[in-house]
Amino acid sequence: MSTRSKPKLIRNPTDFQQQYLSVPGQSGCELSNNSRTHNFFEAVPLEKLKMLHKDKSFTTTRRNFYTLVLVTRGSIRETIGYRNYEFGANTLYFIPENQLHTIEHWSNDVKGYHCIFDADYFLLCLRNQVKLNHYPFFQPDRDPFMKITETEVGSILSLFEKMHFEYCKKKNHNDDLLVRMYLNILLIEIERLYQHKQAAGDNNVPKRQQMVAQFRKLVAQHYLQKRQVADYAALLYVTPHYLNDTVKEITGKSASEFIYEELVREAKSHLIQTENTVTQIATELNFSDQSYFCRFFKKHTGLSPQEFRKRHFH
Q1: For strand 91-95 and strand 66-73, is the pairing parallel, antiparallel, or unpaired?
Q2: 3-202, which class in CATH?
Q3: Between residues 274 and 144, which one has the greater pLDDT?
Q4: What is the fold, at CATH topology level, of the domain defined by 214-312?
Q5: Confidence of residue 232 (pLDDT cuts 50, 70, 90)
Q6: GO molecular function terms here (predicted)?
Q7: C or N terminus of the chain, fewer CB within 10 Å?
Q8: 109, 184, 286, 228 alpha-carbon torsion, rounded to 10°
């Protein structure tokens, strides 16, 4: 039976391995032992995860990263958000960051791929790409899965296999240009399939969850101009207190955290993907001056903008 008390926070691959695996440190490949909190990626065959999986690991969690899973054989039963799902062969399913999640059961014959990565890693994929939370399959008001054909399975499986091969082949954490490119291609291919197959599904989603999804869309549209919870509460015709409580209940984060995270992500994108000065970036993000921007960025990342850029420079 699943534990429905306070969810456990899974921050990185090390937390993931300790939570789910009987032999932590062996989830990815022989060369992998990624313990970093930011800028990480792992792609693992499901059959290998199943082999190393703890018999009992049914704690409800929130993951600080994104998850893609392809099931080619067997079945998986999991709870995502507040809904129970059973995924069979020829299924892709998705878990956005900060989503409630519980593994209930994996069949003994399960096969496919399991991929996790964080937002910072995705920023390094390509310049000017879509933001992760703009992909429809990572939005909380959309179905977190889709059935695909045998032909589509072959195409998606090939990309997972190439990612896994390149990931295990790399000699250091920065030697993964092809991994990033394959991840970007994989997400684009999945988005095309998803948009073709899926309807919005709003009628099947609880109203409070719909409101949170709408709030997050509004933040993505207006975060440069609107930075107060009250601004978004007014757009949604609710009180700031109600909005914040609902967002906290559904996601585990306050409404203001989502606003700040959107700003931080945009700042990271500028620092990694452009050569603009910190002063220019502060101006573009509507901060009153560079020093305020630097304080804000360090408060939310633990690094100054210059330190962050240097750490991610290739």
Answers
A1: antiparallel
A2: mainly beta
A3: 144
A4: Arc Repressor Mutant, subunit A (1.10.10)
A5: very high
A6: DNA-binding transcription factor activity; sequence-specific DNA binding
A7: N
A8: -20
pLDDT of residue 201: 46
Q: Is 206 or 15 the better-scoring residue by pLDDT? A: 15
- Confirm if 194 and 136 have CB atoms less than 8 A apart: yes
Tell me the domain boundaries of the chain: 3-202, 214-312
**pTM (two decimals):** 0.71
Q: How far apart are CA 285 and CA 278, in angstroms?
A: 11
Tell me, letter by letter, the H, E, C secondary structure of the chain.
CCEEEEEEEECCHHHHHHHHECCCCCCCCCCCCCCCCCCCEEEEEHHHHHHHECCCCCEEEEECCEEEEEEEECCEEEEECCEEEEECCCEEEEECCCCEEEEEEECCCCEEEEEEECHHHHHCCCCCCCCHHHCHHHCCCCCCEEECCHHHHHHHHHHHHHHHHHHHHCCCCCCCHHHHHHHHHHHHHHHHHHHHHCCCCHHHCCHHHHHHHHHHHHHHHHCCCCCCHHHHHHHHCCCHHHHHHHHHHHHCCCHHHHHHHHHHHHHHHHHHHCCCCHHHHHHHCCCCCHHHHHHHHHHHHCCCHHHHHHHHCC
Which residues are 218's β-sheet partners?
Answer: none
pLDDT of residue 2: 41
Q: Are 37 and 62 in contact (CB under 8 A)?
A: no
